[in-house]
Amino acid sequence: MMMMRMMMQTIVVLVTVCLVASWAQQQYVIMTPGVCPDPPTQSNFDIKRFLGIWNVYECFDTPYIFGMTCVQMVFTQEDDQTQYIRMQIRGLRDVEFFGHSIWRSSVEYDGVGTVINSTYPAEWSVLFGGQPEFDRDNVNYYVLSTDYDSFAVVYGCVRPSPIAIKIETAMILTREPNVKPKTLDFLKYNMKSWGIDTKYFNKISAFNC
């Protein structure tokens, strides 16, 4: 009886892994074994200085950004709702024929970030429309580092099931489009030391924006 129960539990775990892996593959997300890290965030974080338009220089694959160019992240906030940050991903998608764009459209996705604990203003719970509500009431998005004027590094991580699997996203943001941060190598070195695998970063095209 005990052996049968263990076999059933193993089957349930394997089926769960397969279902989550299938969903991740369809959604173009980075899903790996393990638990989410708990990285340090920007000290003395000033949300007001962070707000505005950021250009995505590099990022992990995400269902929203996959296949997009000229991608921007826009952060805004209502004066009377300091707990909430409005987030918008916007960019362009091209239909190409033999390497040439024959049709281009603008794409936008809206989300909201919530500061769970005002003591840690650089740690948010983020949800975009249509996104599965993993860890909705827990911190899943971190502003790791920023100088507010030229670069920022953000990281997100959720666990879609009780088993040790995590889905990650990360972005290198710049105020000016297609400008490599001077400290990019150092920023990635820090991320690696916090348990974030930077090999998943992809350069975002900012050509002909």
TrEMBL record:
GO terms for molecular function: lipid binding. It comes from Lymnaea stagnalis. GO terms for cellular component: cytoplasm. Coiled coil: none annotated. GO terms for biological process: lipid metabolic process; response to reactive oxygen species. This is Lipocalin/cytosolic fatty-acid binding domain-containing protein. InterPro entries: Calycin, Lipocalin_ApoD, Lipocln_cytosolic_FA-bd_dom. Keywords: Lipid-binding, Signal. Residues 1-24 form the signal peptide.
